[in-house]
Amino acid sequence: MSEAPPRQPSVGDNDDRTDRAAAVSHLVSPRSIAIVGASADLSKINGRPLKHLLDKGYAGRIYPINPKYPQIAGVTCYATVAALPEAPDMAVVALPAREVPDCIEALGDRGVRAAVIFSSGFGEMGAEGLRLQEQLLERAHRHGVVLCGPNCLGLVNGFDAVYATFSQYADGEANSGPIAFVTQSGAFGTAIAALARERGLGLGYFINTGNEADLGFSELMAAVIEDPRIKVGAGYLEGVRDGAALVRLARRCHGLGKPLVLTKVGRKAAGVRAAASHTGALAVEDTVFDDVIRQFGVLRARNEEQMIDMLEALSGERRARGDGVGIATQSGGAGVMMADRAEELGLRVPQLSAATQSRLAGVMPAFGAAGNPVDVTGQFVARPDVMRESVVALMDDPAIDVAIVWLQLMTAHVDLLVRLFTEIRDRTDKPMLVCWVAAPPEAARRLRAAGIPVYPAGERAVEAAAALVRQHQARGLRLASPRIERPAWVDRWDPQDMGVRPSLDATRMLTEAGIPMAELALARSEDEAVACWRSGAGPVALKIESPDITHKTEVGGVLLGVDSEDEVRNGFRTLLRGAQAAAPHARVLGVLVQRMAPGHLELVLGVKRDPGFGMIVMVGLGGILVEVLEDVAFRLAPFGEDEALRMLAQLRMSALLDGVRGQPAIDRVRLAQVVSRLSRWAASVEPVLSELDLNPMRVGADGPVGVDCVMVFRQAHAGPADRPNP
Amino acid sequence: MSEAPPRQPSVGDNDDRTDRAAAVSHLVSPRSIAIVGASADLSKINGRPLKHLLDKGYAGRIYPINPKYPQIAGVTCYATVAALPEAPDMAVVALPAREVPDCIEALGDRGVRAAVIFSSGFGEMGAEGLRLQEQLLERAHRHGVVLCGPNCLGLVNGFDAVYATFSQYADGEANSGPIAFVTQSGAFGTAIAALARERGLGLGYFINTGNEADLGFSELMAAVIEDPRIKVGAGYLEGVRDGAALVRLARRCHGLGKPLVLTKVGRKAAGVRAAASHTGALAVEDTVFDDVIRQFGVLRARNEEQMIDMLEALSGERRARGDGVGIATQSGGAGVMMADRAEELGLRVPQLSAATQSRLAGVMPAFGAAGNPVDVTGQFVARPDVMRESVVALMDDPAIDVAIVWLQLMTAHVDLLVRLFTEIRDRTDKPMLVCWVAAPPEAARRLRAAGIPVYPAGERAVEAAAALVRQHQARGLRLASPRIERPAWVDRWDPQDMGVRPSLDATRMLTEAGIPMAELALARSEDEAVACWRSGAGPVALKIESPDITHKTEVGGVLLGVDSEDEVRNGFRTLLRGAQAAAPHARVLGVLVQRMAPGHLELVLGVKRDPGFGMIVMVGLGGILVEVLEDVAFRLAPFGEDEALRMLAQLRMSALLDGVRGQPAIDRVRLAQVVSRLSRWAASVEPVLSELDLNPMRVGADGPVGVDCVMVFRQAHAGPADRPNP
After folding, report:
1. Quick one: angle between helices A285-295 and A243-256, nearest 10?
2. A458 by DSSP, 3-state: which?
3. Cis amide leading into B6 (omega within 30)
């Protein structure tokens, strides 16, 4: 996907929005199609759509447009857009880039509301192309045309034989089905679509979004996921420009009960923004993406192969209703390998009930192991009932939610095995995946035709089973955001009042929001500092306070464990001298006196503004762990305690929260409440807050207490319209 | 693999060893084969070997043995083993379990030195079967017959059409080649072999080891890896009984320059032994296996699919000579995905030289990116020279050691592309892997026939490239073990003197071995304790000393930072009272007084005796990290500083060693010296040492210092013959 500037908001009120939705609907399900720049050579890019529409039997009206021909392949050809006998539902534009803006104007004027633009030479071609793309978009908005592309392969609606594409994918056999696939990449997307077809998986829609000058991934997917013939959405992404739209899409898929599976490249490179706070520095974009899509129930596929594996399981009729995996094999080793992988993925491979075990003992040969994994051995060729009855018994066990049956080769027994698996399927109502290593090609084809997913490798079958379990878990998410109320001061906030907030202010705001913060006072003199120390019990920390010093420790501006009048006085002077030396021009307001907080664990909490998604809350394990291990979890604000608990559980060092080496367990619920409150506060002050870093937050038996925070307000006020809250 | 008792040492002197090696050599390359229990029904288990030998054209002499038939399939059949006209090189035994020991005796008496035993009903069938297996083994030893099996599918030597097997694998086309595959699992092994054939990879040997009553995985692989026609060894393991043999095999493969690739199941389950020290508790067997095989240059494949992917790359003629990966694609996104995976695997995706970049600029279309990954775009169909010249330029770059070319579909251009790739291959001398997503089957077949590895998914191609890089790195390992000298006292050691060593003794031994330990003295009275404290500067730790208290902290037996006479006296009394209360029957020797050690980092060092491999040294990051993250590295002792440095680099939290949050970097070399010394000491006292736990070892600017150790001597003295040092 090329880098284009953020899209102009093209929708103002509800009517416009409805118009736009209607236009997108015409785009993906047109009753009539114009092809501007159609070629009489049906093998060329601008000839292929007509060829495909004719070959695949599109039932709508087709209008090739090219002044050179009276007709192409027997279809009447028109000289101009204006000459069309009706306004078709959509147009395919295959003209040189320079001619496209005028063409879109003509289409709009003729009443065409949607266009797919094949032409390259736009945003992907540097500054000049970008200017042309902006011009195109402006013209499209002015003349009321929604655009897919430019620089895209177009789209296929397999149900209605709409082949508005020149993709190689269209060369293959038509095979529409329950999957809607939308891809930002043309070449890779075509490859994925072809892999799906190889597996017998039908794509109801195939859409390549190209430069996304107008319609982006989420808006296009949102249009097609509504189609009742679609059971699952699949997307290939290279970037996310409109996170809010993606979250809306995820919510809608969740509401419809349709899984959304995304593959996104760019796990490592780029994306790491240098920023003023630790929160910023850790914010690898992909990690945020990963956490936020899971927050809204989206499944992520690691790569193209895993995506197809997941789609094969998810496009079946059956869903898992829990996380218990039953495994039956004819090899003990394969069973161990699959059980290991299941454990790594957080699935259960549960013990079977006594009833199941005795049922298995009744049908299994003596030397098969009757545990889970069940080893049915190779004997089932001689006694097919052994395999059938033991797998049915396994699947009937109440602890089992999805079953995997592993076998290999058996070239001579395909008929028998296909019949066996079909019988098992018919006697159960839980999802069953077959892993058939080195399967005769015919076997895999026949099982798939019977609606039974087949995998060529054990771990891949387990990963597909995990997708069914994750989808079950995602279905159980409550995606309603907690209510937030914007504080009155936010609307009155003066944009000039930006930058790092004074510590006292920041601490007060957080305390008011229900975030426990260590008691804090500003001392302007030694005497005031001593009085602050005397006002409570136990040692204090002294910290230099200046609007010009963001990270106090880096200038030696923090003294810990100060607990006598002498220490307080010496400390006060030391800090002032140090600040003077390290930052001669800093405006020093005084020294903060803060009671030392109890607690044996250090966490980091943070808020940052993600350019794609908006306000992101981070929780991590503090100190050295956050720096080296980057053990952090992100969520889009606001969210409730349940989600905050999931953040805590997600940390790799989560076990620390429960106490190791004799340390007490901390109260996860209490901590989760604080994290959720922080998320609600962050969302409520979204127009103002740029970022917040609570580092560390100490947590002990008395719950969490923030002992240092850096709060930064935005440079320029942006109203809520700028970033609609999802 | 079933659980059989450790094998009796069957070799006493060199002559015996040579005899045994000769017998194994006859087993895998026989000039004549007897089939005991041959059936006239060639579809049965005991009929299939004869069928395969005839069908595949075995050139040696075949002797079916069965009193029921004068001949089978035209081959003369003998009534008994004794009646054979010569002593064949090997025998296949396909008799009921009960008859097998007598048969082996008869074979031995007839002069047969090697047998493959198909029969099941031995160790895999519980106690009774195990007894029969022991009887069989005893008989085999007595009559000088080496055994493969029992309960195995047998073996194939594809070069000489030796089909001493009833595996389904033998049903397929013969395709011997440069891979020797030895598998402990019959079913899974057959599946892997079939997958290899699907990819056009030839197995020179296929051997299923079954119950490994006599010959184990390593000994069989060691026999076939010597065959000059074999270029790579591949093994599927379910357990390792003889780690020393595996290490010998790995050394030999390293010496021959032949990669050894192992897949082993059992990554998670079982294997975790409860043990007295932390070192023991953390010793998940699979982790030890993983670290030790890598120490000796073995490559590990995660699963069967990855194994085949790796073999496809490794069985080619070309080797990587560095870790730089060049990637050429027709999709930017695929390039990002592959570059990410390469980075995850620790490979470099280097920038190209200025010369290469200008060469690329000369051949690439304007909108292709000329970096690495190189995006050659889809234009190469129109201009094949673009792809050919840009990939050649990429591969000519000195920073590139292995190249991956990614493409998809292109169904109509198979001829062109096969020619292009062959041309590229012929113009370069570095390994080139093709990733062709949704390739026409014919394309993959033709490229493989031309010796060009082909992968169906981007990340899998990168993982295969990583195997080439790892093999290059493994080739560079120096596997010579450092010399060790056994201290004289070890041979004089009294086996009665077992159990936990007194701290003073243990500390002295370690200090003598060059392991820096904090200064330590035993105080038998308060006054002695005070004197110890006064003898140096700074605070001390007080620790209860008793042979009956292994973990002092667990009984409240440690006081830290004691630094005044009062504190020392109070501490002394407190510890004695505490020990009395916690362990009334413990023999308390006094209180250890130990100067507090400097250093900001805590490490754990340990030694344990692995039942498979022998003396294993562990290094980990201490404190909470070792418990929650299990961030530890294992190596087989003894090893040098280089290997110790690799252990440190392997730790996930390795960055801590270099100083974070303003802490100073520690001296890795100095630490590695200590770890290497510990390994040499451990190896030198192997007959005596059961385990050692140095926890923590503090490391700071002054290098590492051990502050606590638990050293345990063995319960029974086992001489060096029991565990030969590899």
Report:
1. 30
2. helix
3. no
Give the whole-angstrom CA distance, residue A437 versus residue A440: 9
CA A477 to chain centre: 15
Residue in this structure with the two tokens 């509401």, named with its chain if needed: A255
What ipTM describes this predicted complex?
Answer: 0.91
Selecting from B187, B343, B437 the residue whose C-beta is nearest the C-beta of A268 gives: B343
- Residue B456 to residue A302, Cβ atoms within 8 A: no
- Specify whether the CB–CB gap between A117 and A142 falls below 8 A: no
In this prediction the pTM is 0.92
In the numeric block, the tokens 């090696």 are attached to: B21
Structure tokens at A22: 């209607």
User: Cβ(A90)–Cβ(A112) under 8 Å?
Assistant: yes
- B251-293 pLDDT tens trace: 999 999 999 999 998 876 433 322 223 333 333 478 999 999 9
pLDDT tens digits for range A603-656: 999 999 988 899 999 999 877 666 777 889 999 999 999 999 999 999 988 888
Chain B contact for A665, CB < 8 A?
no
How far CA A100 is from CA of A77, A106, A111, in Å, comes to 19, 10, 16
The torsion angles phi and psi of B350, rounded to 5 degrees, stand at -75, 155
Backbone angles phi, psi at A130, to 5 degrees: -65, -40
Residues 487-516 of B with CB under 8 A from A: none
pLDDT in tens, A663-704: 888 999 999 999 999 999 999 999 999 999 998 899 988 899
Question: What distance in Å separates residue B412's CA from the closest CA in chain A?
Answer: 10
Low-confidence ranges of chain B (pLDDT < 70): 1-15, 268-284, 365-370, 380, 624-626, 716-726
> Under an 8 A CB cutoff, do A194 and B332 touch?
no
Quote the CA–CA distance of A254 and B76 in Å, as a whole number. 72
Name residue A66's amino acid: N
A302 contact B CB<8A:
yes
Residue of A nearest to B306 (CA): A457
Scanning A135-194 for CB atoms below 8 A from B yields 168-169, 171, 184-188, 190-192, 194
Name the residue in chain A with its Cα closest to that of B365.
A125
Cβ B652–A660 below 8 Å, yes or no? Answer: no
Rounded distance between C-alpha atoms, residue A400 and residue A431, angstroms: 10
CB-defined contacts A:B, below 8 A: 173
Concatenated DSSP letters of A455-500: ESSHHHHHHHHHHHHHHHHHHT---PPPP----HHHHH--TTS-EE
- What backbone phi and psi angles, to 5 degrees, belong to A216? -105, 180
Residues B666-705 as b or e (16 or more Cβ within 10 Å = b): bbbeebbbbbbbbbbbbbbbbbbbbbbbbbbbbbbeebbb
Look up residue B493 and give its two tokens. 């050691």
* Contact residues on chain A for B334, CB-CB shorter than 8 A: 185, 187-188, 191, 265
A185, A188, A267 member nearest B340 (Cβ)? A267
Return the structure tokens found at B42.
Answer: 């060639």
